[in-house]
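Sanity check record (used in CI):
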Amino acid sequence: MNKILFFDKTNSGHHYIYNKEAMKTLIEKKGIEVHYYSKFNDDLQIDQLEQLNVVNRNFRTEGSRGLPLIIELLYLRMYLKKNKINKLHLFYLDSDLIYAPVFWVFFKDIDITATMHWYPNKKIKEKLLKNLIESSVIKKIVVHGNYTKQKVENLVKRKNSVFSITYPYLHSKKAEASTLKRVQHKLENKEKPIFLAFGGLRRDKGIDILLEALKKVKLPFTLIIAGGESDFKKDEIIKIVEANKISHKVILDIQFIDEEALDAYFTIADVVVLPYRKYFSGQSGPLTEGANRSKVILGPSSGEVGYTIEKYNLGITFISENENDLQEKIEFLISNINNVKNQTFEGAENYQKEIDIKNFSYSYQKFFLNSQW
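Expected output for Glycosyltransferase involved in cell wall bisynthesis:
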């Protein structure tokens, strides 16, 4: 029987949903045994994967970086040998690049493929990526979008090793009426249009840039900030909002957002705003969530996000990290929101076909089955 092992050092949130959908493409094929090596802290995930006939292997160490991860990778190598598996897929090459020497030394006899969500923003990682592909340690690589695909192809000679699979719409759960009503209640007597900044408060996502741009906006609007703490804490966001005198225009829900609340927020929003910094080089989950609901997308003109917005006419773009340009684009949207919605509707419909989970699954199936077994 043919066997393949999938590896991800993180198994939470969208990682698990994405990985499960990608693995399902092979699970449904007879004669292929699927193993999944990751961190498991959720019994429901384990049950779901066992029902799909995935063989699960939990981490043996506590760490997810540094020496503990190197040790875990050596355990992974032993697991491959013990179970006579010669195919390995790395679900998150972005965070594994720094451990490239481990793969060069200990995984030479393994056929390795990988998914890379972000193009490296550091020269050392770019060099490691190039060497992994040029040396055929990584046989094939998946990226999300033609912009990133072109960048990798420009980096390496083995251009036929790079494949683009559109990042999918992953959250299909609809909000219950009570959840939708709760979110709507927060917006009572609030001014429109509604801007939504969704996701963990990492620095690269630029929530501070957005709040600085908004303090200069005199037109009516409401901003919802929904997502968990990260580089920015709730107290820091409150201080910036208060200092900029926009407290009456901002609704904060700084916590983990479940799927029902996610759907409610995206359903209610007029504009999904992505104030990302220049070094954000991946595709955006909130972009796909917004586009799937035909929402106007406001994002940076750079990177995969800017390429996607402009190619599919999903909204408008601004110069990344430029508060004045972001302010001007926000004011333009406030003044022209209905016209922009009408202009972007067709583009959103076309993009929805591409981000459909069935296309994602088919593309991954094609990627794996075109590999030699």
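The CA atoms of residues 8 and 315 lie 33 Å apart. If this sentence no longer matches the regenerated tokens, the check is flagged for review.
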